[in-house]
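One such given next:

>
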Amino acid sequence: MQPLRWLIPFLAIGLLAAPAAAQNPEIALVEKASGKVTVLRDGHPLRLRAGDPLYQKDVVETGPDGSVGITFNDNTVFSTGPNSQLALDQFQFDPGTAHGAMLAELRKGTLSVVSGEIPHGSPGAMKIKTPNAVLGVRGTTFAVRVY
């Protein structure tokens, strides 16, 4: 056992540094990312690229030249433009029943949405919050801009 004692601190550090994603299931996937696109996860900014997963409580940010396309597990599609900040506050979805709930907050910038299965299986359970309003989505395509 003596030779492995050096390994214990490294294992402890690895467990502490493990992302919250291990406890928080993936809710969406970045389909496209161009320019500066980052995610604030557990208070740390990380660069986003196509293929990266997103999790509940992530905050997606785009720079002056940034845009991102996101597909959620219920097939909802979000697209944000430059200088946007989008918080993914809540997402639950059961593919077997198509029931779920989503709450996202557009804090600034632009967002276009093509709703997926949540509004069909759980009418009124998809909401987009802005500084001035809460949009209840019932299965539609729309765009919103926050200055």
